Amino acid sequence: MVALGDSISAGWDGQKQIEDYRRIPEVIAKLNGWYVNNQAIGGTGYGNGINDFSAITKRLNFAGYSLALVEYGVNNWRYGSTAGEVQQGLTLGINNIRKSNPHIKIFVMCPTLDMRRGTATDMNTPNERGLTQNQLNDVIVQTCQALDVEYYDWRKQPIITKDNAFWTLGDGASGVHPTAKTSLEIGKRLAYILNGGRR
């Protein structure tokens, strides 16, 4: 498995870098008995930056992998992306992966709750370009469906909520980064789904 994502997959808990084996991709790999190459980079997203999804997928060779785990989105909402920019970045990245390896399975983890715009934030709070977290998730889901890519939408059974953000996030009720314990819970659920379990 190769993992692509932002600081959430890179293991930043809002206060410090957690040990590599406790990061979400590594938890999934350990539980399922897989090798993982974690290429997540903090601060990235579905954009045009040098380390964003579409750019990094141009540089990497996916030929040796059977699964690509993709996790971005919180920085797109936090730093003012539009739905169109997210759709374009996600589409370009997926197409790049498939050019490198047409047989690879791609699995997209939709964003978890981002509280960085304050404790009054909810899924319908818009960023400065008018994009809400619900709309962000919707465009990721719709793009995945259009491209025949598997995904997981946390809105159905969230692990991080407004009510528990104070202890599930390492940077607290106005943060976004899961604690090591929360990363373990996220990893366990995704490991089960990726190994054929029910959603």
Q: What is the overall pLDDT average?
A: 97
- Identify low-pLDDT runs: none
Query: Number of DSSP helices?
Result: 8
Shape: globular
The assigned structural class equals alpha/beta
- Termini separation comes to 20 Å
Largest sheet: 5 strands, parallel
Strands ordered across the widest β-sheet:
2-1-3-4-5
Assign a percent range to the helix content: 25-40%
By DSSP, the count of extended strands is: 5
What share of residues are in beta strands? 5-15%
What does this structure look like?
- This protein is of the alpha/beta class.
- The protein has helices at 7-10, 24-32, 53-59, 74-78, 83-100, 133-146, 165-168, 180-194, and strands at residues 2-5, 37-38, 67-71, 105-109, 150-152.
- The longest helix has 18 residues, at 83-100.
- The radius of gyration is 15 Å and the shape is globular.
- It starts with a strand and ends in a 5-residue tail after the last helix.
Provide a short characterization of the protein structure.
With 199 residues, the chain is of the alpha/beta class. The chain contains 8 helices and 5 strands.
Task: Give short descriptive properties of this protein.
199 residues, 5-stranded parallel β-sheet, 8 helices, 5 strands, alpha/beta
